[in-house]
């Protein structure tokens, strides 16, 4: 009886052991399948993210080009406005000169009329004297001379007659010369006046042309601003795609973290305390955690980590012991490493230089191990380390863990 019972117990144990082995093998096989499936999803998502990033970069470049064109146009408009103002000032000055010329022409016309009247009067007087001389002959003048009371009086009377005749001739000559000068001046003034009118007309046309050009450029700027808005919308759409890829990255990392937990790969899970610095403390913080204006898109957005400015190639260290659950290029992060420290705590290291990933997925690392090199891959304006701390997949302020 005892032998039968013993035999049955051995049989049960063998069946149970085989069953456990089968279950364990099945579980491990499923884990490997899950890892492969997650990797496949990750690769597809990354391809989509890279395409979105490429399109966003193209749109950003086009936007910058358009903005430069707008800036150039605005500068041209400022120059045009300056020209319009200058032309308006010139036209105003010329119109003042026009009014002054009109007044001068009026005064010259009055002066010319007066001179003509004086000339006619003098000429009439001279003609009268001449007629008197021809009608009375030399006797009339002789009478004047013969009526002299003495020889001296005769001489005086003769000089007086000569002086009157000479004076009349000089006056007529002077009036004629002055009249000719006034007439010449009037002609010159009229020529200047007509030239002035032509200049005013030209300035008026130029002012209108400049105003039309300004209007055309304003319309073009409006069209360019519409184009910028469309590019902004496109960039926003690409950012949404990138955010979707980031969510997929987090999902993938979570799956790997779960599998690591099932495999008990993290021997000493994080239980609290201060994390180590991911970079030499001499390198200053260039951007803190929190809402900021994005340096590339210029849009207000939450910054999910801390940026440390450092030269390309600067060493990056693991902030805590754990297992690498991602080490490759990923969307806006560029070359990126995520370390799972256990109990829902991850650290993320972004914008690592090409060739600067010194650990691979699945590697176990210890606190302070050199894991990467600073770079400027992904959405980056220059070499720096983007460092994140995530608790249960959600970004938290790294300062709370580093201080």
What keyword list fits this structure?
single chain; 403 residues; alpha+beta; Helix Hairpins; Glucose Permease (Domain IIA); 2 domains; 10-stranded antiparallel beta sheet; 4 helices; 12 strands; 65% helix; disordered N terminus
What does this entry look like structurally?
- The protein has four helices and twelve strands, in the order αααββββββββββββα.
- The protein is an alpha+beta fold and 403 residues long.
- The protein folds into two domains: 33-264, Helix Hairpins (Orthogonal Bundle); 266-403, Glucose Permease (Domain IIA).
- Strands 1, 4, 5, 6, 7, 8, 9, 10, 11 and 12 form a ten-stranded antiparallel β-sheet that branches. The protein has a two-stranded antiparallel ribbon with strand order 2-3.
- The relative contact order is 0.10.
